[in-house]
Amino acid sequence: MDGRELNALVQDDRMHRRAFLDPAVFDAEMERVFGRLWIYVGHDSQVARPGDFLTTAIARQPVVLCRHRDGSVRVLFNRCGHRGALVVAEESGNAERFRCGYHGWTYHTDGTLAGLPLSDGYGPQVDLADPALGMLPVPQVATYKGFVFASLAPTSPSLEDFLGGVKTSIDEIVDRAPDGAVEIKGGCHRYVVHANWKFQIENLCDMYHPAFSHESTLRADGRQFERREGDAGAPVRGNDGRSLSFWDQTGMTAYTQGHSVQGPMPRAGEPDTEVYRRYRAALARRHGAANVDRVLTLTRHNTMIFPSVAIQSLNLHVRTITPVAVDKTEIRVYPLHLRGAPAEMSRELIRYLNLTHAAASFIQTDDVEMFERQQQGLRTQANDWVRYARGLGQERPDNEGGYRGAGTNELGMRAQHRAWLECMTAA
Ligand code: FES
Ligand SMILES: [Fe+2]
Q: Is the CA virtual torsion 134, 138, 139, 145 positive or negative?
């Protein structure tokens, strides 16, 4: 697809439906967006011990995130150096070596060839030490406070430059951990959604929708998200329009890299429990008592790191967005635990995410239904354009390189589309 064709798909306030429907656009996205940017692959706590691994994909290419015996985190293409088979078929686990199921070639956890059966059948013209016979490393890997990203591109701006203003979202979460680190342990909620990947990334910082998409979970008094002790809930009663101003006031910031954050959320009441007092005491030991309130005040609720991962700070989880086809996307939701916090808080987080993000839950299932309805509706020839005009022209630069607007604005999506077009049309 040439630049002229691509430029025709994005205007300031709209994106052409072809961007969500056309397999040729999707192929170009895999090469130029997912194939060029830093893509989140996992958290280093998921591969805590040597030999730990998990499998995922970057731009449809299967990869393995693993911990090598020297302690380093590696990201390898999940492809056998012999005849190309996927080597690691499990979602996660621990292995001293990876063994291909086809002819038994084995690999060290840095991807180098460890051995092959009947190696004396290869003559002198075959160099078994050739790195190309190994599981090759993905060109770039970098970590920010435990969050591991990889890039298929040989060079790019540093991960920190790429993250820019959304580093603060990670910093704030890590500060809330009494031991100064977050971790992912156990499993995830996993969906395969029959919809384009962009619908999920647009939804993260869309505060226009909760009152309507999630209407069925509202309490009689119009408050939502009140399922935990001490949580005051958010007023989202919709049809009179007035309560939506709550979400407008939370605000939204978008960045040129395509990232966006929604927040701050007003500080909800804190649970008056023994567990929470223990948590505060642990934070006071780390940060000093005078700083605990500041540490517990989050300036962000939803963070979308374009194009592959979202972090929700209040209902603490990491959400990965993995495109499979133009109309098929895998989404995984991993609870994010605060190391050093009482174990009861971890259990409560899991219970809460079971309510809101499991495949048979209240909240995320509403969104997923909407993504699939968008995919269906856009097939009509009625209208070529998907609209994102809300708040257009009202965004204002902030002091940290972002643009700020009201919480129900569609400025996060507009930033995504600009970043998307820039990647798609770059040389
Ligand atoms: S394809 Fe892997 S050992 Fe043959
Ligand atoms: Fe939602």
A: negative
Helix (H, G, I), strand (E, B) or coil at 419: helix
How far is Cα 295 from Cα 216, in angstroms, rounded to an integer?
33
Strands 309-312 and 39-43 come out as: unpaired
Q: Tokens for 1, please give them.
A: 């697809």
Question: Strand 98-99 relative to strand 73-77: parallel, antiparallel, unpaired?
Answer: unpaired
Ligand 1 contacts CB of residue 101 (under 6 A): no
Whether the CB-CB separation of 88 and 55 falls below 8 Å is answered with yes
78 Cα: distance to centroid of ligand 1 (angstroms): 12
Query: Where in 177-301 does DSSP place strands (E)?
Result: 182-183, 189-193, 223-224, 234-235, 252-255, 260-262
Residue nearest to atom 3 of ligand 1 (CA): 103
pTM recorded for the entire structure: 0.95
Instruction: State how far the Cα of 46 lies from the Cα of 67, in Å rounded to an integer.
Output: 9
What confidence score (pLDDT) does residue 283 get? 97
Instruction: Sketch the domain layout of the chain as residue ranges.
Output: 39-143, 159-425
Residues 6 or more apart in contact with residue 74 via CB below 8 angstroms: 64, 65, 66, 67, 68, 109, 110, 111, 137, 141
79 Cα: distance to centroid of ligand 1 (angstroms): 9
Fold category of 159-425 in CATH: Naphthalene 1,2-dioxygenase Alpha Subunit; Chain A, domain 1 (3.90.380)
Q: Which helix (H) or strand (E) holds 323?
A: strand 317-325
User: Block means of pLDDT (10 residues each) for the chain, length 427 residues?
Assistant: 94 98 98 98 98 98 98 98 98 97 98 96 93 97 98 97 97 97 95 97 92 80 64 61 72 96 79 93 97 90 96 94 98 97 95 89 92 98 96 92 93 97 95
Which one of 1.25.10.10, 3.40.50.720, 2.102.10.10, 2.40.50.140 gives the CATH number of domain 39-143? 2.102.10.10
In the chain, the N- to C-terminal Cα span, in Å, equals 12
Indicate if ligand 1 lies below 6 Å from the C-beta of 97. Answer: no
Handedness of CA 144, 149, 155, 157 (dihedral sign): negative
Contact 240, 361 (CB under 8 A): no
* SS3 category, 132: helix
